[in-house]
Every structure is written in C-alpha cells, then in structure tokens.
Automatic annotation (TrEMBL):
Keywords: Acyltransferase, Fatty acid metabolism, Lipid metabolism, Membrane, Mitochondrion, Transferase, Transmembrane, Transmembrane helix, Transport
This enzyme's EC code(s): 2.3.1.21
Database matches in InterPro entries: Carn_acyl_trans, CAT-like_dom_sf, Cho/carn_acyl_trans, Cho/carn_acyl_trans_2, CPT_N
Active site annotation, chain numbering: 379
Pathway entry: Lipid metabolism; fatty acid beta-oxidation
Organism: Hucho hucho (huchen)
Superkingdom classification of source: Eukaryota
Protein name as annotated: carnitine O-palmitoyltransferase
Topology of the protein relative to the lipid bilayer: Multi-pass membrane protein
This protein's record includes keyword Nuclease: no
Amino acid sequence: MAEAHQAVAFQFTVTPEGIDLQLSHQALTEIYLSGLRSWKKKLIRLKALVRIFSGRQPLLYSYQGSLPNQPVPAVKDTVKRYLESVRPLTTPDEFERMTSLATQFESSLGNRLQWYLKLKALWASNYVREGISHTNSIFCFATSNADLRCQNGASPSLTCTLSPQDFLYVTPTPIQAARAGNTLHAFLMYRRKLNREELNRVPGTVIPLCAAQCERMFNTTRTPGEETDTVQHWQDSDYVAVYHRGRYFRLRMYSSSRPLSPREIESQLQRILEDPSPPSPGEEKLGALTAGDRIPWAKARKEYFSLGVNKRSLDCIEKAAFFVTLDDDEQGMMGEDPAASLDRYAKSLLHGKCYDRWFDKSFSVVIYKNGKIGLNAEHSWADAPVVAHLWEYVLATDSFQLGYNEEGHCKGEVDASLPRPQRLSWDITPECQEQISQSLAVAQALADDVDFHVFSFRDFGKGMIKKCRISPDAYIQLALQLAYYRDRGMFCLTYEASMTRLFREGRTETVRSCSNESCAFIKALEGGEVCRRLLRHASEKHQNLYKHAMTGAGIDRHLFCLYVVSKHLGVDSPFLKEVLSEPWHLSTSQTPVQQVELFDMVNHPEYISCGGGFGPVADDGYGVSYIIMGENMMNFHISCKHSCPQTSSHKYGGQIRQALLDMLQLLCPDQREPSRSDQSQTKKDL
C-alpha cells in the first residue's frame, strides 16, 4: 500500500539500555511535505479568520482555521468500545478469544503503533486523512471498507457511488434538452457560489463544519493506478463532457467569459441529440473501462491513452467540469407498476448500462429521454451530505428559480453564432477493444447481480416519532435491526455513517448500531414483552454511540489507521487482521435534508426527492440508505445481491415497514394503524 509507506518516519524500540531509533529518509520527507501542505492551508485560513474578526460576513472557508484537529483516541478506550460492540454478535467462547487477542494487542503492539499516529496528529491537519494517504490518494481512511476493496482492484461502480434521484412525483418538463439546459446551468450557478464562498454550509446551527470536501466537487477525476488510485483536480473548466448514443462531445459552457443561458445550453444539447454520426470503433462502450476492475484500466490507460488523439480526448473528459449522459431510456415512477419502475430508475442511476457513465468523474449528470434526471457521484472525493447539498440546490434552482416557458423549453434567447459542440476523436485498437469487452463483462455481472428496491413510507414520519420523545435516526436504526432479525433470525455487524466534519478535514466515522441494548430490546419484543423502557434505553445508547463517533471517539477509523501503520512496519497483528476482515452485513446511511428553505413541503408536497442509494457492501448483506422528508414521510433505498439466496430487497423492505409500525404501536398503543383507504388517500393527495 503506497500510502502506508508514508505513514511512518522512523522505528524505535525501548530497551533497558535506552531507545534504539531508526530513521527513514523517504518517510521523513513525506511527513515534512504533508505537514508543509497542512501549514500552507493554515496560513490561508488565517486570512479568513482576520475577515471574521474584522466584522465582515464569514465565507464558506472562513472557519477552517478555527476548526480543531481530530484527536487520536487512547488504544485502551478504542479496544474497550470495540469489545463492547461485538459482545452481542459472538458466542461466549468467541468473545473470550477476541478479548484475549485485544488484551495482547493493547499491552504490546498497540502502544507502539499509537506513537506513530500521535506523531502525525502533532504535525498534520488530520491524522486519519492527512499524510498517511498521499496528497491525492482516493482512500483517506474516511470511508467504508468498500472503498478499500475498490482501491485494491475491484470495480468502484456500485459500492463506491452515490445516486441521488429527481423529484418523486413531478417532472418539470418532458423535453430532454430543456431539462438538461436548466440543470446544467444550475450546476454552473452552484460552482460560482462555491468559488465565491457564498454557500451556507451550516444551516440552522452556529457550529462550523469543515468544508474541505467542497474543493474537489468540480473539475475532478479519479485516476486508476496499479497500486493505488489518485484523485486529480484542475482549475475551473469552461466545458463539460457529454455522452450520447456511443459518442463523446465537448460542450463549452461559456461564451466571451459569460456562462451560457439555459436556453443556449438546451440548443447546444439539441444539436448533439440530432447529430446522426455513428460511434467510431470501440467508442460506444469505452466508459466500461471505468466500471471494471481498476488494475486492467490502469494498464490500458498507460498503454492505449498516454499519447496522441486518445490522450487528448481522455484529457478532455477527465478535465471537464463534470460528465453528462443524455440517456435514451425513460425512467421515473410511471406506468402500470410505479413501484417496479422506481426500482429500475434507482438501478439505472447506480450503474446504467455500465458503459454510458464515466464512473471516474466526481459526478455524472444523467438526463433521461422523458426529462427525468439523476446523479451518479463517485464517493472518494466527498461524502453523501456534500453531494446532497449540491443536488438540493440544483433541483430547487431548476424548478423554482429558472423555470420553463409554456411549451416546456428553457426561457431566454439563443446566440445563433455559438460554435457547435466538438465531437471527440478516438483511435481504439482491437487489443484495447478486447480490454473494454472484458471490463464490461465484469461490470455487467456485478450490475446484473444487484437487487434494488425503493419505497416511500408515508404512514407517519419524524413528527410522530418526536412526539414519542425518540430520536428519529435512532428509531429508524432500531427498526432496521428489528427487520434484519426477523429477516435472518440473527443480529449482525451494522455500519451507520456519521460525519466527523467538526474537525479539520474530517470525513466519516462508523456508528456500530447493533448494541447490547438494541439486541435486548429486540429479543424482548419478539418474546412478546411490553418493552417500552428497553426501546428508550436502546435509543439513548444509539445517540451516545453517534455522539462518540462525531466527536472523534469512534472505533473503526482509529483501528484502521493502526492497521495501516502495522502493514508498513511489516508486523502482523492477529487482532487488527480479524477486526478488518469482519463483514458489514448491514451498511446504512441517512441522507440529510440540509436546505429546507429551498422547498415548501407543506404547499408543494409533490416537489420532494426520493433521495439516493448505493450498492451492497457484503455479498450476503444489505445496503440501506434513507432520507427523512418533512414531518410525515421517510424514503428507503435497499440493495442486496440476487446471488445470495438469503437476501431479498423487497422482503427486507417489507420487514422494515412492519418494524416501523410495530415500534410505534409499542410506544403509542392508542395510535390507530393506517388503513388501506388512508394510505390510498395519502398517495392520491401527493
């Protein structure tokens, strides 16, 4: 692992005769450079603090310099929390064995590895992110183990992507080019606000959050490597890359330094839609290289795209502001079976045809033939809340600010002198085409195996849950645990993403939602007991776990950093090896609604998004993404694999629905369960 070689500058051993110190010149150089980068950022942020103290309105990055560094937890505390988290998942003999391994690690190797992390914490901005991974490394110990597998060669197109959806009940215009015109212009408006630092990143709170992830939102590409991927970022691009019917185009978004109007973008995209030229040999499915395994893509990139016309065209895609797909399919909740069509829509955004997205770009905008839109966002550069913030702005700006004329076209006039979009040229050899076919086969097999289900829960929402004096997130997490227990007859290691953006350059931490308290509640409920007290106790425990994760006292990032250091030193830790090999059978994440002021959910309840989802992390597990919309609606995205006979996204979705209802009945026995007619009326109203 390349980044591991940059984690350690020296080795030392404490002996009765003193300290035996061994220095590594290369590692010291890397530590120096990472610290230098960190201090350059600190100087820039110091200027922002001066702005704040001068009484001027703080900007997006104004608080970066005042954010604290993420603390390194004590090894004994992390080990204690870990053992507590696995207690309900192990037999007495398994727990005793794990306790022995943990105790041995804590008293010996753990303290040695901890010194290196403390060294990084003293010098770098974030011991989890800065320095241990090199400047542009895609893996910053900030995401789940799925990203590690992606780094080590597997396809990133399923577990390492996020796929936010369009409005659930409304399509502002059925004209593909028009919807694309407003949407792309809204992205440019957001980028301008981002460059001017005018975005409000801390809605409804005075607590500043780290905004470092925003820096790589646009003009960013994940580049494959044989050892590790890198994320490359360029200065503002004045164009986007567009894919349609197997052809790639370069579409300039500015004319004489001004952004094109929505109507002009619509006109330019219509030219692409009407272009009759066929794809060149190998061009149509070229994007499959970004969907397949990483090492073959890295080798093919070096061999076939390092010079000439192929390099120029590839550079054009990778340096574009973002990627756009004009999809020939129609998607959305429609037809005689709207539920099934919603599932197909979600799967389409996740992987498409496996060659009509550019999965390496920071995000790809998908515009469907019937005017529906969506996003496919690569996960390494940012986490879901950052992508969701961008998407909320685009949806609201498209419908409520830009709008359409009576015919459904974008408003405004068109400059007839605009040059046509430029068609990209390729020279794809037969050998390269063979590699494209192999990558497509790998990606297609993964995509076909994904079982995806999306549903809206409208029986009640966070309003009713809060009336019961329960945290909505804790309530949902307990429902997911209860549903899994009913589905599989057991408890499992559960991952819930929590942000650590209270700290400088913080990303995420894991909340291990399956606890002793949650298991006690579920066993009592399934045993027929009235267990309100246990439910509340489990909810309080979950909130405490979440607080620990947010404030730097989590488990998994610390253990993984210790593991990376141990790999560099060439020492094996049975304890760390076992911890890192444990599968997350239930991987969950909440997508927060951050810009409530942009949407009027009372007067316009139809203008709501269904959120977005991701693929399963474990072959025999589930991926669950959920979003709480307003006071009376919760949307769920559930994924698993067809190849696992023990999992079914629809069956698990039904279990989640029933668990939500049963828990409310426990808390509020007098609450009437909604009838079918009530549910039908709710759907009709929406």
